[in-house]
């Protein structure tokens, strides 16, 4: 049966972000999971070292989350949110507003982080039209940014590998620099931050009258290699957006719900966004729910008699699904009862100490971390920071070795991403980092 399933997967599936030739050479089918480990169809266990793409919180088969879904199934699995609401979606909205930045008062549901960002872009565009400023139609995107794979989200993204092929489909956006301290000329966090803010301000001075919003990942650029922003940068961006009357869309899809040691990463710098996208950890990694938060001012710009055509005509079939909202409510209850955010903040100190051990490896150039978002950048030369040639695929080779050693992750080019489930114990974190170290050492030694 095992061989049969693998052959079926090769014959019929087309996997996301996957060159299927790679999959055919190294297939993997997950059958079950318990705690922070998953098991494949051959019975081999692996640490879930990237939280099943950055979203698992409490581990797999968490009893309370399982029971919340079963309980909701006894009532109803789904009904539409078009023109009506349901019980868990309504209760969850209140809970979300209670824990989000205080300026945010409204919740719009969707199914994924990309959709949450797409919604924010459309809200912004229509907001300015509704209040009589239709000339504000342009967006500022951050270089190396990533917000998902729908066309709007791609248009405010800027990762060449992912986005260049879709250029003819995308709308044009202004690009602003992001502080990538390790690759900056000075290597100084303050200097790098200030230079990027100066360039952003110049862009805003010249074009703010036509700019509707700026979109930015919160504190950490994830897909571009776990690039952690230097202290004061996000707050500086907020200040500039306010000064030049540009809305600020903060993408908390990956960083939200405790991942960085705060409920939302923008709390690190007390930033109040105008719109905020969130997803991934909202259901504890169980079901696809995402949200777009908005301020009351933005909401009121759409509130009018129908014939004035200010309605936000947007929605999806499974928006506000009861099963997803029910498990999200239980997930957030566990955040409180188990002190998840405080636990992550505390365990992050231990994780920081563990990760420093990787610095001794001759081909680890930089280690970046904020909470449980971590990346180790592999380089050909530690002294010159020279990267490996792309065709060497060092990150991919290391991830395969890690799989062999019993841990799963997805590399970001030659950055080894490490985003363990938030419930990981200190002992489990130590074991996972040890696997990372062994895999990096073995693979880079062979390539010397």
Provide a quick synopsis of the model.
This protein is α/β, with parallel strands linked by helices and 448 residues long. The protein has helices at 2-12, 20-25, 51-54, 63-73, 87-99, 113-130, 151-155, 160-163, 189-207, 233-243, 296-300, 322-337, 340-356, 394-405, 426-447; strands at 30-34, 37-40, 45-48, 104-110, 138-142, 174-176, 211-217, 220-221, 227-228, 247-251, 275-278, 290-295, 364-370, 373-378, 407-408, 411-412, 415-418. The longest helix has 22 residues, at 426-447.
Short descriptors:
4-stranded mixed β-sheet, alpha/beta, globular, 448 residues, 7-stranded mixed β-sheet
Q: What layout of secondary structure does this protein have?
A:
Elements: H1 2-12, H2 20-25, E1 30-34, E2 37-40, E3 45-48, H3 51-54, H4 63-73, H5 87-99, E4 104-110, H6 113-130, E5 138-142, H7 151-155, H8 160-163, E6 174-176, H9 189-207, E7 211-217, E8 220-221, E9 227-228, H10 233-243, E10 247-251, E11 275-278, E12 290-295, H11 296-300, H12 322-337, H13 340-356, E13 364-370, E14 373-378, H14 394-405, E15 407-408, E16 411-412, E17 415-418, H15 426-447
Parallel strand pairs: 3-15, 5-6, 5-7, 7-10, 10-11
Antiparallel strand pairs: 1-2, 2-3, 4-12, 8-9, 11-12, 13-14, 14-17, 16-17
Helix pairs in contact: 4-12, 5-12, 9-10, 13-15, 14-15
């Amino acid at each position: 049966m095992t061989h049969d399933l693998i052959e079926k997967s090769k014959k019929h599936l087309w996997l996301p972000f996957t060159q299927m030739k790679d999959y055919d050479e190294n297939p993997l089918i997950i059958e079950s999971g318990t705690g922070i480990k998953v098991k494949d169809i051959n019975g081999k266990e692996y640490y879930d070292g990237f939280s099943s793409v950055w979203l698992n919180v409490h581990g797999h088969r968490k009893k309370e989350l399982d029971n919340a879904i079963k309980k909701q199934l006894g009532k109803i699995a789904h009904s539409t949110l078009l023109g009506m609401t349901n019980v868990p979606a309504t209760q969850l909205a209140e809970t979300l507003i209670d824990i989000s930045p205080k300026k945010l008062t409204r919740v719009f549901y969707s199914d994924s982080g990309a959709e949450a960002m797409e919604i924010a872009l459309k809200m912004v565009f229509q907001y300015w039209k509704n209040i009589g400023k239709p000339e504000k139609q342009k967006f500022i995107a951050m270089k190396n940014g990533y917000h998902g794979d729908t066309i709007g989200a791609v248009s405010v993204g800027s990762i060449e590998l992912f986005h260049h092929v879709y250029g003819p489909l995308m709308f044009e956006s202004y690009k602003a620099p992001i502080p990538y301290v390790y690759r900056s000329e000075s290597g100084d966090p303050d200097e790098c931050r200030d230079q990027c803010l100066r360039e952003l301000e110049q862009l805003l001075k010249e074009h703010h009258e036509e700019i509707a919003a700026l979109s930015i990942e919160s504190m950490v650029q994830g897909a571009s290699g776990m690039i952690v922003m230097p202290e004061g940068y996000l707050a500086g961006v907020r200040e500039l957006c306010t000064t030049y009357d540009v809305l600020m869309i903060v993408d908390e899809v990956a960083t939200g719900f405790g991942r960085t040691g705060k409920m939302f990463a923008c709390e690190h710098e007390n930033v109040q966004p105008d719109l905020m996208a969130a997803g991934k950890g909202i259901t504890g990694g169980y079901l696809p729910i995402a949200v777009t938060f908005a301020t009351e001012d933005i909401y009121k710009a759409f509130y009018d008699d129908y014939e004035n055509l200010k309605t936000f005509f947007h929605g999806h079939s499974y928006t506000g699904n009861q099963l997803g909202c029910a498990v999200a409510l239980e997930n957030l209850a566990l955040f409180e009862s188990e002190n998840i955010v405080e636990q992550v903040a505390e365990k992050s100190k231990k994780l920081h100490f563990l990760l420093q051990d990787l610095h001794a490896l001759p081909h680890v150039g930089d280690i970046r971390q904020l909470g449980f978002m971590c990346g180790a950048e592999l380089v050909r030369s530690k002294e010159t920071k020279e990267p490996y040639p792309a065709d060497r695929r060092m990150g991919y080779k290391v991830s395969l070795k890690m799989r062999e050693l019993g841990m799963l992750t997805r590399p970001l080019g030659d950055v080894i991403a490490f985003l363990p489930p938030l419930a990981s114990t200190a002992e489990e974190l130590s074991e996972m980092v040890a696997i990372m170290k062994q895999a990096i050492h073995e693979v880079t030694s062979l390539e010397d």
